[in-house]
Amino acid sequence: MARVGGELKLLGLWASPFVTRAKLALQIKGLSYEYVEEDLGNKSELLLSSNPVHKAVPVLIHNGKPVCESSVIVQYIDDAFAGSGPSLLPADPYQRAVACFWAAYLEDKMLTPWGRVFKVKTDEEKAEAMRQTIAAVDVLEDGLKECSGGQGPFFGGDSVGYVDILLGGMVSWVKASEPLSGSKLIDAEKTPLLAAWMERFCELDAAKAVLQDVDRVVEYAKLVMTKNAARASNNN
Amino acid sequence: MDHHLEQQAAESEKKAVKLLGMWASPYVLQVRWALAMKGVEYEYVEEDLRSKSAQLLAYNPVHKKVPVLVYHGRPIAESQVILEFIDDAWNHRGDPILPRDPYRRAMARFWARFKQDKLSPPIWRWFTTEGEEQEAAYEAAVEQLLVLEKELAVSGKPFFGGEKVGFVDLSLSPLAYVIPIYEEIVTGGGGGGVKMVTEEKMPSLAAWMGRFLSSPAVRGHLPPLEKLRPRCQAMREAFLVSARAKVEQQQQQ
Lengths: 236, 253
Description:
By secondary structure, chain A is an alpha+beta fold. Helices cover 58% and strands 7% of the residues of chain A. At the A-B interface, β4, α3 and α4 of A face β4, α4 and α5 of B.
């Protein structure tokens, strides 16, 4: 793959869907990079100095300069490497705004409650968080319709774009949610366009190269939830 | 362009751009300032959020909130999305709202997210709670404000956007005028005087606040402090009353 415009390093964690977003963007843009797997229990000096505010992954380091926050990283990759690979955002300002609106919806209305599922203590709280997440997926179905404009199966239309990558990074976790919680997050009967989207997305070379094995994600998620539950009961 | 043509252009622009807003919303104000920075003429529609118009519900069915910018009949919602759109659609006019350089753009977006995810929640908690919960929220908010203080101090620039107001300044704008109102309300009556942004602890931020409010776009449309104060006061009281009622309920069970 071409080494375009300088050195790229990605600090990540294999399980993280946010890191997966960055990997997808780099893959789709045809960019080569050095990947560093972080141990979040023992964070590297590089991670701590590159992301002092959040001390979290992913961090993309381009020619020594760090970019943090997965959605910011994906947009940065599109901006800084505009000549490489396809554009991730539409050229038209209004279409770009539509894509950014649905990206914000995804983060605020779907991912926020979904994150709570793994952190809250009671089954009741978990169920409520799942309900909110699934409600957001229903609305996202309309978002897919609006973004794609009937031009193709992706939010980007007939090609993969910004919102596809943001949601795409979550796919292994989406698939893990049925074994983990008993609920399907993307159900072909309720959100057929999103179900078709997921199928088409997984057929992409970039997705095959980057998406995590679902069974490994399920095991990892169970570990995380056990740890969180233990921490919660230790605090009581 | 002669005066007559200029007038015509302004009038037709006004028809093309509409902003649905509400006087107290800091998100609406940010958009008004961005439009002023680009010299955009627009029609402003004040919404009653207790009785939302059919127009608002049609233009923003997902969130049913303001601001909504309507551009040639097509709606854009969510203030950050709107700010970026304004910068894109009028990029040939006025100063850039976001930096043009990709890395600096990424930094601007990072700080806007920081404000939303790390800064606003503890500030809101501080304003709407009391006792231990409020103290903890205060500490959390100060910790995050110090991060911003450092960022501004290290840059040595007058604004987060550099020499002029930019995307991050607009995103942080409530800090410039809402925090002083909150400080007045929270410390009023009981004495004490617990300020959140002091010249001592956060000299760069304190200076930025006044500088921001004096900047050209903001000066032209100042936040309505006199009306905001009683509104914020009523909000705090409502939250405290509701929280105390919940505690009583729990104690009776």
